[in-house]
Amino acid sequence: MHWTILGAGAIGCLWAAQLQRAGVPVSLVLRSPARFAQYQAKGGITLIDGTGETFCPMPATLAAAQTPIRQLLLCTKAYDSLAALESVWHRLSTDSRILVLQNGLGTQQQIAARAGKARVLIGSTTDGAYLRAPFEVVHAGHGETAIGQLGCAAARLPDLGPGFGLQLRQDPNIEATLWRKLAINCAINPLTAVHDCRNGELATVPAYTQALGILCTEFEAVARARGIVLFDRPLQEQALQVARNTGDNYSSMLQDIRHKRPTEIEQITGFLCHQADLLGIDVPHHRALLEQVRQLETATFRSRQHES
Ligand code: KPL
């Protein structure tokens, strides 16, 4: 069955290219006429991975088109996902299925509330990918995508065809998986954004490692109070392992700051601070980072306005 991809960032392009390569009918939705024209000039996505470069041609439509959508992969930035969903709402029917794949927490629940839990699948991925240029994606690290449904342990994996080249896992407790990813993102992303450093430096610069340790302890207190089981070792060890494994990379949050784009801080650290408030738990170090990243965003936004 046809897949429609909304959100042509790194993960959206990776999934679109993999589907096309597996012989599954797939198309993109682009929301602005300028992006649509930019895509039409290329006519496809270039996938760069261990097998070399593959050009994967596929059609695209503007969000405002009328073509019905049966299976939607929603993989915009978290802060944009509700607006993105609204832009194609008129193309969805009660039979349409939606797979949401994004960072952070909070918006998945909002999308499930808007569309109805039963037709929304939620994913969490450890695949590493980045855009070398618009619609040209590098699959930099092979991971796994866990997929499940909020409040339902038995949801089935969506039909992606037998030749689909990404690793998938049916997840009976996707909410806990999202919390684990959130824990890693809360420990690594804001720190790298404010220190303008590679992930690996969090494990080699003592002051950064110490700050990461405090963030992990604060996070664990919230997770414990929420009854969320994180990892089978302390969060600090797990986060440092991820920082080392992705040592040469710049976190997605730092990349957003450097490219003067909005970050997902509200859906990552902002979500955690909100949960902590509800539980009456103090998370002063996360709160301080939330403010610092907000200030960085404001400063980069002002400098972008100044440039244009
Ligand atoms: O997911 C990540 C990101 O950059 O968003 C990693 C590399 C794991 C850091 O949190």
Account of the protein in words:
The protein folds into two domains: 170 residues, NAD(P)-binding Rossmann-like Domain (Rossmann fold, 3-Layer(aba) Sandwich), CATH 3.40.50; 132 residues, N-(1-d-carboxylethyl)-l-norvaline Dehydrogenase, domain 2 (Orthogonal Bundle), CATH 1.10.1040.10. It has 308 residues and is an alpha/beta fold. It is built from eleven helices and twelve strands. It is globular. The termini are far apart. Helix 5 packs across helix 11 and helix 10 packs antiparallel against helix 11. The site of ketopantoate (KPL) has 11 residues, from helix 5.
What would a concise description of this structure say?
This protein has 308 residues and is an alpha/beta fold. The chain is 45% helix and 21% strand.
| Distinct ligands | ketopantoate
How widely separated are the two ends? 43 Å
CATH class (first level) name of the largest domain: Alpha Beta
Number of helices: 11
> Oligomeric form of this entry?
single chain
SSE series: EHEHEEEEHEHEEEEEHHHHHHH
* Strand residue content: 15-25%
Shape: globular
Q: CATH homologous superfamily name of the largest domain?
A: NAD(P)-binding Rossmann-like Domain
**Which structural class do the helices and strands define?**
alpha/beta
Say how many strands there are: 12
Low-confidence stretches: none
Radius of gyration based on Cα positions? 19 Å
Widest β-sheet, arrangement of strands: 5-2-1-6-7-8-11-12
* Biggest pleated sheet: 8 strands, mixed
Q: How does CATH name the architecture of the largest domain?
A: 3-Layer(aba) Sandwich
